[in-house]
Amino acid sequence: MFFIMTEPAHNVSISVFFPCYNEQDNIAGVLEKAVVVLEKLNADFEVIIVDDGSSDDTGKIADELARGNDRIKVVHHRGNLGYGAALQSGFNAATKELVFYTDGDGQFDINEMPALLGLMGQYDIVSCYRLNRQDNLIRKINGWCWTKLVCLLFGMKIRDIDCAFKLYKREIFDNIKLVSAGALIDAEILARAVRKGYLVVQQGVHHYPRTAGAQTGANLHVILRAFKELFRLWKQIRKD
């Protein structure tokens, strides 16, 4: 697992989705940029917005954007079900051969996604890691410790478990059963996929400061839930 430079692939079949919670100030720009990137690739594509029960106008804005483009789909959760549930809805809604996701907060640049496509001839998953992570020191330390713990438990060598910039072969999700509704979801996908023999490669991508909205992943409830689910998952996978 190492950094690889590659030329982007063309004529790809890809689903791109954005899990969103209260991203009314970000979602239009993120979505419009994604469509531009995908059209330049001449790809067979769809873009999916997963509105995880937002209390602002995220869902309304997403629906308005979808009305103007039949390749844009919106999945709504009636309530805020959690990050894992949002990712599961995105994977379930995806219909193309590849599936890529990144958060709807604009902290990643989807222009870096096409360079990952050429890797899919040799690998099943591209798991990216943040270059110059734009978070405060506490979040950086928590992220480093979490990644080390997950890798220790599941025997993986991943640099940034929760980096929200990942590309998968969609068939993976026909062959693994996901249970995480919260922040454990990225760890669960990688652990189950690696256990089934899928190949993972890693690539660095740039990370940018949030310019609108508020982060929700670092509250104590989310963290405690993730640890509880982690050890439950570890016991479960050991039995499989």
Written account of the structure:
The protein has eight helices and seven strands. The model is unreliable at about 1-10 (pLDDT under 50). A seven-stranded mixed β-sheet has the order 3-2-1-4-6-5-7, sandwiched between helices. It is α/β, with parallel strands linked by helices. The two termini are about 25 Å apart.
**Can you count the beta strands?**
7
Task: Assign the CATH superfamily.
Answer: Spore Coat Polysaccharide Biosynthesis Protein SpsA, Chain A
Helix/strand structural class: alpha/beta
Instruction: Tell me the helix content.
Output: 25-40%
Q: What is the H/E order?
A: EHEHEHEHEHEHHEH
* Count of spatially separate domains: 1
- CATH T-level fold name: Spore Coat Polysaccharide Biosynthesis Protein SpsA, Chain A
Average pLDDT taken over every residue: 88
Trace the largest sheet across and list its strands: 3-2-1-4-6-5-7
> Which outline best applies?
globular
- Biggest sheet statistics: 7 strands, mixed
* CATH architecture annotation name: Alpha-Beta Complex
- Strand portion, in percent? 15-25%
What are the low-pLDDT stretches, counting only 5+ consecutive residues below 50? 1-8
Computed over alpha carbons, the radius of gyration is: 17 Å
| Straight-line distance between termini | 25 Å
The level-1 CATH class? Alpha Beta
